[in-house]
Design goal:
- The chain is α/β, with parallel strands linked by helices.
- The protein has one domain: Alpha/Beta hydrolase fold, catalytic domain (Rossmann fold), CATH 3.40.50.1820.
- 33% of the residues lie in helices and 23% in strands.
- The strands form three sheets. Strands 1-2-4-3-5-6-12-13 form an eight-stranded mixed β-sheet, with helices on both faces. Strands 8-10-9 form a three-stranded antiparallel β-sheet.
- Helix 1 crosses helix 10 and helix 2 crosses helix 3.
- The protein is globular, with a radius of gyration of 18 Å.
């Protein structure tokens, strides 16, 4: 069943944060996308989890309809999530995230344990070595804006089909833009590199780690180590690459529903 979410915004330090609220009377679930994505990527999952769960999916800073920011550190991302939950009057939630979103979810749990009942990390690692070149550096060749939608898609090359649904018309009608700024994306990716073991181990709530067995970001050995070292963590895997939710939506939803039923 298709669910039509409500899009709304709040202002944080003069910057707009946009989010989708899939509604309903179910328990709240905060859904956090990865780089190059946005809140609408959780539409199918929201339908699969309803009506027991009210999915709230922000366009994280610099993504989708949310304004660009000066800061793409964990502190900045987490501060937005705390502000959003306060704005919605939610004092307890399950946090779910993919990749960047998964890392932000377990940082939120570590730094604000009273807010997070449990978290689901979909292929978000804890150890991201800095190899000197961002794996997302290819987006620096994309223009942020173009006069027409066709021009913008042509400039994105092989990535065009994936990016097409998210293109936005400029407010003044003069052209089109990407749903992310290329330089911001690379800056954000570079700032997530490093060792996150402290934050991964800092919380004690139940957690589910879903790992793509062919993931380019989270090797199976690291995922198993994450599970072994953090009490209360359940490991599940799917035969996908890093983009687990898109590659196996039905399998992902089944694992997520199974975990949520235990809470």
């Amino acid at each position: 069943m298709s669910i039509q979410p409500t899009r709304a915004t709040l202002t944080i330090d003069g910057r707009t944060l946009s989010y989708l609220d899939f509604g309903g009377t179910g328990r709240p679930l905060l859904a956090l996308h990865g780089h190059l994505s946005e809140g609408s990527s959780f539409t199918d999952l929201a339908a699969a989890l309803g009506p027991d769960w009210r999915v709230i999916a922000p366009d994280q800073r610099g993504h989708g309809d949310s304004d660009r920011a000066d800061d793409y550190t964990r502190a900045g991302y987490v501060a937005d999530l705390v502000a959003l939950l306060a704005h919605l009057g939610i004092d307890r939630t399950v946090a779910l995230g993919h990749s960047l979103g998964g890392i932000n979810a377990y940082h939120l749990a570590a730094e604000h344990p009273a807010l997070v009942e449990a978290f689901i990390d979909v292929d978000g690692p804890v150890d991201l070595p800095d190899h000197g070149t961002s794996p997302l550096a290819f987006v620096l060749g994309f223009p942020y804006t173009a006069a027409t939608r066709e021009d913008l898609l042509a400039a994105c090359g092989p990535m065009a089909p994936a990016l097409a649904p998210g293109l936005r018309r400029l407010p003044d009608g003069s052209g089109w833009r990407l749903p992310f700024h290329p330089q911001d994306t690379v800056d954000s990716e570079n700032l997530v590199h490093g060792d996150h073991w402290k934050q991964w181990l800092a919380s004690s709530c139940p957690a589910l780690l879903i790992n793509g067995l062919r993931s380019q970001a989270l090797p199976v050995r690291q995922a198993l180590d994450m599970t072994d070292r953090r009490p209360g963590t359940t490991y599940r895997s799917l035969d996908t690459d890093h983009f687990v939710l898109q590659a196996d939506p039905a399998g992902s939803a089944a694992l997520i529903r199974e975990f949520l039923a235990t809470l």
